[in-house]
Amino acid sequence: MKNLYIDFDGVIYNSIEVSYKLADAEGITKDYESYYQFFKNLDWCEVLRQSSEINDAFKCIEEIINCGKFKVFILTHVVSTKEAELKIELIRNYLDDVTIIPVPKRVDKNKMVKVQDSILIDDYPENLRRWDKDGGISIRFDLDMDGKGFPVIDKLDEVIEMF
Q1: What's the total number of domains in the chain?
Q2: Does the chain have fewer CB atoms within 10 Å around its N or its C terminus?
Q3: Residue 105 has pLDDT above 80, yes or no
Q4: DSSP code per residue over 70-125
């Protein structure tokens, strides 16, 4: 059974798209520190309220769990405790039997868990590059099916047929 780590923002929920629109509306410059401060003070309750599930993600995760091939985790970057709490609460409305790992934004996901031979599904190519470098298996989630050099899916349960 392989460990399968699934990103939240941009993979399960379109919250990254919503938060970027809010940042643009505020005129936030696109440098890392400005974005970090913006996200740190963001009203995550409102972001999650405006966001929606992507391609039946929770049903797909249940199918992945039930197939018996993977031990499933949600691995999500967070910039505040409140963001982590709200994401956990939302996920728990759909899934009881999955471990949720909030990762402080300034820590790379590949530094939080055992990466060797584990799978990461993420929409952000840099996370996938770091994962690969540490011996993991990377799959890009992208609705436009642009893998950017990685195997790509646009619906989470597609991973079942890949392994």
Answers
A1: 2
A2: N
A3: yes
A4: EEEEEEEEESSHHHHHHHHHHHHTT-SS-EEEEEETTS-GGGTS--TT-EEEES-H
